[in-house]
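@channel sequence for tomorrow's demo:
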Amino acid sequence: MRPEPGRGPRVTARALPAALALSAALTLVTAPGARAADRTSASAGHVFHVDCAAPAGGDGSRDRPWSTLAQANAQPYGPGDRLLFRRGSTCTGTLAPRGEGSATAPFTIADYGSAAARARLDGAGAHDTVLLSNTQHLRISALEIVNAARPGSERNGVRLRLTDYGTARGIAVSGLYVHDVRGGDAKTLTGSSGIHVAVEGTARPSRYDGLEIAGNRIEDVDREGVYFKST
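structure tokens (generated this afternoon):
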């Protein structure tokens, strides 16, 4: 039997090479981490629902959820907002949300519903299944992430990216099941990996401070499991 997602030995990296331009506060843990949704106040922000099996024309409410990632990407998010994907459903393409939370009210991406299967995001050969670009105070958890179509081309499961941003604080990636990311074998700034963290740009020094990658199950991915790269 396969272990439950998040089970396994604990590994902690307390410091990284300076060339990565990442904070020494970053921690990688394979033991179960705190669920992102648990840390968000239910009274803060707005809740948006996505069910890609639902009829078109929804407004993001639980009764009339959005049915595409394009709808989720079009909404600007702020402190305390929650973007929730229905368990048992599959959305295809790239999730690239805009906006950020705050230190006291992070923006949360997680799941809802009682189905046994996870909410699944399938990149279907896109460069990234999830792209979290120039954002901070964000929590993502509980989802299943795949990207197997067109094997051998550069792609990622989840990509975190800073470009001339400055310091991004308070990001947690926890409890994801990332698998079958069929990327290429080239060692590049932008891919391929299960979870990819990149710092780039030339106008403003950037870094992650307090980035937590915890309790994720990562298997059958190319080229790396968790990968860090910086200019």
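heads up for whoever presents: Confidence is low (pLDDT under 50) at residues 1-43.
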